[in-house]
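Side project, low priority. Logging it here so it doesn't get lost.
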Amino acid sequence: MSIVLTLLLVLLLALALLFGWLFLRTRSLAREAEATVPQAGQVVPVEGGAIHYVEYGKPDAPPVVLIHGISAQLQHFTYAVAPLLSEEFRVIVIDRPGCGYSRRDRDELAALPEQARMIGEFLDNLGIEKPVIAGHSLGGAVTLAIALDRPDKTAAIALIAPATQMQDKVDPIFKGLEIRSPFMRRLIGHTIAVPAAKASAAQVLAHAFAPESPAADFMTRAGAALGLRPKAFITGSSDLVMLEGAMPKQVVRYDKLKVKGGILYGTEDKVLSADLHGRSMMRYGLSYDELEGRGHMLPITAPEDCANFIRRIAERAKPPAPAAEPPAEPPADMPYTGGEA
């Protein structure tokens, strides 16, 4: 056997051992993640997957649906926003299709209209009629897709730091998700991605929360540990790649938006541009509000402001009260029966 062939075999064996170790390490981290953040609610099957959700409040209260962003899970809203709304609303918090403990059977179902369809089917299955829907970040884009496709079944939309437009480049913290091959997406997801995500978590969170500090319990109470699973990488990558094709088709439909709503942004958001994704939507009838000095992770860093924003949007969606009828005038020929003038 030649020296070159021997070296090649040694290299292949070393690579096999490395990938084997990464695969086992990934499985171990995924088990730890699910033990740290176990399934919190119920799962409802829909065509193409299933939706995991938790519920707060009274069943007969007005419904509010909360939808998280990319590479996230429902705990971003259960962290504080959902409990704050539970006295007034029936609050349904979901894992988007493929995220958390929800399921998505194919990468193509990451397209905005497909996510909207799956969530709409879930709401129909639960008998949720005319909810106010609030979405954060990519969840805002999905919320807009629902409003465009189901205007008669949506009371109002509350968009928190939403993605509404295409932008020239992907934010650095999401660049690693830009994998276009489904095969490579899964190979990377089951080997390199999870150990790399664990190693870079501090830097990624610092950027996502900037200029504010990451929550100390973000990995546990906010469920971020669930990001240390192959499924999270595969879903996030599919979301990012499919967004490129779906967003331009959605943008050209905004002039047909009929559902009332508004947008809330932090003035110091480092992930999405408030001008591009927020103020630009005022031309389509959405209100626009800002939180001075806040960043992108508003459901975690400013839950009271988010809850108040959702309340304002819900109030705006209420039908106007019927005008009171004026008292009837007595007939002109009715005899006077009053007291002295």
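Brief comment: The first helix runs from residue 3 to 36.
Revisit when time allows.
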